[in-house]
């Protein structure tokens, strides 16, 4: 092959090194971009220097094409538009200061969501959840980036995190219903029940934490740009409650350059069940060109029930609904600052539990009363960013309010057949704040920051015969903390990069009871200071192969819970648990470049003093430290493009967990695994993308998911098995101009398996509860943009 011309070499160098660390010129500081005409790579390099941005162009030929330059542009967006005008190219913001410029794709190429999103492994995709400028192929750990587009969101947004779990075998969930589930990543699972323990998975909307010691809020995904899943623990960057990792939802930002709107609607039907519907819309309105914009999202859905209650003469009792709004306002260039203000409002409702009982006809359950559930979430936030010549300055403040309401049929709790009810109200308030500096360098990424958090939860309960329920003691837990954290990467030669990090957390935890007369008792307060460490290595020997090693720590603070037995007015304390994980990973190829690519990682977790929410002998949820556990595992993914229009991919997860040193109350003569995470899971997909009549993009795909067997909980009375089934799915979509039409089917085989062996704590001891797979469901949808 002939050597490349010198001009091409210079273009490539300019493309890959766009001088983001250079000081801005006086013209740039004054808000004006002036760049003379020349090769596109050189023009973009100058724009990057003026705007303190990293601009990436992966196609060297594109970088040599002539650009008209930039004249009197007053924003980075405007400068980019002028630079690529007349060139078959587009600019895509990966994050606020990193832009990818690429050739405009041919219509026959698949959009991002049409490729199995479990393995988007492009080297120029940044893992923004790392809080640094780290590319996905250089992130020394396991990260999954799920890029979304209009079609995928129209079909899946209403499912929330359920849609993400269907893509990633490493992500598991309980199945109580929307807004009341617990999430687990890579086998880091404490229990199947909801109590006062902090979540093992941290969920974030941008930089703002969504939950602390509450179930998954199941945020609607409509108008999300991407979802990032970082395997844990993530104690150094994110603090307590990230033992399994984090899930970061990144919404599309307001755009001050153009009015835009999208909408979608769907109608679904479930075999042996009711009809469901969903709809969503987005409107983006510029308020001042290059200065301000507002973006509004509204959505609602109703999922048809499929369980009948013959004793009450009711059908499809487990219907659920959700509705909500998101509003965001962006103000650019306020004295060099960019401000984002926003709010989230979402209500989830389930009319009844979605479990059945052994010994009753299929998809039926006899209950004395309805068992509804509510999860209402309110959120407000403020984020600010300023680009300095050498770093980015970021700050954020967030407020989250969650109101949870749960009703269980407690008939028989007192040894009689009198219908009884247990009602639980959980009022949770969360304040968060963070301030950090992040370096621009892709070769030496670093971050230094400080954060603060305050969380308070008040659990109020009532139990007794209908219309004569007796209040029980309220349990209150509060947590306040402040932390300093930092992480830096540096090269050890040409092929090896090391990353070290540290977090110092000082915290105060308090728990107490409040009786029905408002008298405080059983107050427990704990002050603590702790360090969390990170050590990682990323190795790139050359060619398509690279590898990494990652060690990290995490923990969850202790608190106060109701006692495991008695009348529900006594308390017991649970202590802090700690987890450390070693991970060794291998990468081969890139999905956007190679016909074959794969990712894999071996890991070992040591989990001391495990906290777990359990069902006590009184039927109430209690929390205790159950012992010491170990988890060994492997997760990986592989993909292949046998032809330009075809993509075959698969992902798998295997683990072996052991409760090696159980607390005496949870000891068993049998070997015990950790709860609710299958020993193995597989997802495979075949997808085709093409065109109809040479102009209308068409896609179709089929999926197979296998969920292995797991157990409900620890102890001899909770070793009930669940899982062990295969679910088939398929979907197809055609886009005709601005209109998209789609059909999606799940559980094509109409499998009747047990996903979760729990629905009501007051009947758990009978071991006969089953949460079935949702029967075959077909959805027809349409979406459009204006």
What is this structure, in a nutshell?
This protein has 786 residues and is mainly β. It has 3 domains: 6-104, Phage tail protein beta-alpha-beta fold; 117-245, Ferric Hydroxamate Uptake Protein, Chain A, domain 1; 246-785, Maltoporin, Chain A (Beta Barrel), CATH 2.40.170.20.
Measure the end-to-end span.
48 Å
Structural class of the helix and strand makeup?
mainly beta
Strand content: over 45%
* Contiguous uncertain segments of 5+ residues: 1-31, 106-123
Describe the largest sheet.
22 strands, antiparallel, barrel
What is the fourth-level CATH superfamily of the largest domain? TonB-dependent receptor, beta-barrel domain
CATH-defined topology of the largest domain: Maltoporin, Chain A
Helix segment count? Answer: 8
Sum up the overall morphology in one term.
globular
Q: Judging by the overall fold, what is the CATH architecture of the largest domain?
A: Beta Barrel
pLDDT averaged residue by residue: 87
Describe this structure in words.
The protein is mainly β. The chain folds into three domains: 6-104, Phage tail protein beta-alpha-beta fold, CATH 3.55.50.30; 117-245, Ferric Hydroxamate Uptake Protein, Chain A, domain 1 (Beta Complex), CATH 2.170.130; 246-785, Maltoporin, Chain A. Helix 3 packs antiparallel against helix 5 (76-84). It is globular and about 85 Å long. The two termini are 48 Å apart. The model is unreliable at 1-31 and 106-123 (pLDDT under 50).
């Amino acid at each position: 092959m002939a050597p490349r011309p010198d001009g091409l070499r210079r273009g490539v160098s300019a493309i890959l090194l766009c001088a983001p660390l250079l000081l801005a010129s006086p013209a740039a500081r004054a808000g004006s971009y002036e760049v003379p005409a020349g090769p596109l790579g050189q023009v973009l390099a100058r724009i990057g220097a003026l705007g303190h941005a990293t601009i990436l162009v992966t196609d060297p030929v594109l970088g040599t094409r002539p650009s008209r330059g930039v004249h009197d542009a007053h924003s980075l967006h405007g400068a980019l538009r002028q630079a690529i005008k007349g060139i078959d190219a587009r600019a895509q913001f990966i994050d606020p200061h990193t832009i990818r410029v690429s050739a405009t794709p041919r219509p026959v190429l698949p959009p991002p969501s049409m490729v199995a999103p479990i393995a988007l492994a492009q080297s120029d995709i940044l893992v923004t959840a790392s809080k640094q400028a780290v590319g996905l192929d250089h992130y020394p750990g396991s990260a999954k980036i799920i890029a979304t587009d209009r079609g995928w969101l129209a079909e899946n947004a209403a499912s929330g995190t359920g849609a993400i779990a269907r893509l990633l075998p490493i992500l598991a969930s309980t199945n109580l219903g929307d807004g009341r589930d617990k999430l687990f990543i890579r086998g880091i699972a404490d229990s199947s029940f909801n109590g006062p323990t902090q979540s093992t998975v941290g969920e974030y909307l941008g930089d703002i934490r969504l939950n602390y010691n509450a179930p998954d809020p199941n945020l609607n995904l409509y108008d999300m740009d991407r979802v990032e899943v970082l395997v844990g623990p993530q104690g150094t960057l994110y603090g307590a409650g990230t033992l399994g990792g984090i899930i970061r939802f990144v919404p599309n930002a307001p755009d001050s350059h153009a009015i835009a709107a999208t909408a979608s609607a769907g109608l679904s039907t479930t075999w042996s069940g009711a009809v469901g519907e969903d709809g969503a819309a987005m409107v983006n309105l510029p308020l001042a060109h290059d200065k301000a914009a507002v973006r509004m999202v509204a959505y609602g859905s109703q999922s048809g029930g499929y369980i009948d209650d013959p004793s009450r003469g009711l059908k499809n009792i487990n219907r659920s609904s959700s509705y909500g709004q998101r509003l965001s306002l962006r103000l650019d260039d306020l004295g060099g600052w960019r401000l984002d203000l926003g709010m989230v409002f979402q209500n989830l409702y389930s009319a009844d539990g979605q479990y059945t009982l052994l010994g009753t006809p299929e998809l039926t359950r006899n209950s004395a009363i309805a068992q509804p559930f509510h999860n209402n979430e309110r959120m407000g936030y403020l984020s600010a960013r300023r680009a300095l010549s050498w770093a980015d300055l970021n700050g954020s403040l967030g407020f989250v309010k969650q109101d949870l309401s749960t009703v269980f049929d407690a008939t028989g709790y007192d040894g009689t057949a009198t219908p009884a009810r247990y009602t639980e109200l959980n009022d949770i308030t969360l304040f968060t704040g963070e301030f950090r500096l992040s370096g621009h360098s892709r070769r030496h990424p670093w971050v230094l920051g400080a954060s603060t958090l305050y969380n308070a939860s008040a659990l109020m309960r009532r139990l007794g015969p209908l219309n004569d329920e007796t209040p029980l003691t309220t349990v209150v837990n509060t947590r306040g903390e402040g932390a300093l954290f930092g992480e830096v990467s540096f090269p050890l030669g040409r092929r090896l990069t090391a990353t070290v990090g540290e977090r110092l957390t000082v915290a105060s935890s308090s728990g107490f009871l409040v009786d029905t007369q408002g008298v405080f008792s059983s107050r427990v307060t704990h002050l603590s200071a702790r360090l969390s460490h990170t050590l990682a290595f990323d190795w790139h020997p050359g060619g398509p192969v690279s590898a990494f090693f990652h060690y990290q720590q995490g923990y969850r603070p202790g608190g106060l819970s109701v006692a495991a037995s008695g009348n529900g007015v006594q308390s017991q304390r649970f202590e802090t648990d700690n987890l450390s994980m070693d991970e060794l990973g291998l990468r081969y190829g890139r999905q956007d470049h190679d016909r074959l690519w794969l990712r894999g990682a071996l890991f070992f977790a040591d989990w001391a003093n495990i906290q777990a929410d359990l069902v006590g002998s009184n039927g109430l949820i209690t929390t205790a430290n159950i012992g010491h556990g170990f988890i060994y595992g492997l997760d990986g993914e592989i993909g292949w493009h046998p032809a330009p229009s075809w993509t075959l991919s698969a992902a798998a997860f295997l683990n072996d967990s052991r409760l090696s040193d159980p607390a005496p109350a949870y000891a068993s003569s049998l070997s015990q695994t950790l709860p609710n995470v299958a020993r193995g899971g597989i997802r495979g997909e075949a997808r085709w993308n093409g065109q109809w009549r040479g102009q209308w993009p068409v896609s179709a795909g089929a999926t197979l998911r296998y969920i292995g067997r797991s157990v409900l909980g620890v102890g001899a009375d909770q070793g009930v098995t669940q899982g062990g089934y295969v679910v088939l799915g398929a979907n197809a979509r055609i886009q005709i101009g601005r209109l998209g039409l789609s059909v999606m089917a799940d559980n094509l085989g109409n499998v009747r398996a047990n996903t979760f062996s729990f629905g009501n704590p007051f009947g758990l001891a009978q071991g006969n509860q089953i949460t079935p797979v949702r029967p075959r469901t077909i959805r027809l949808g349409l979406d459009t943009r204006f």
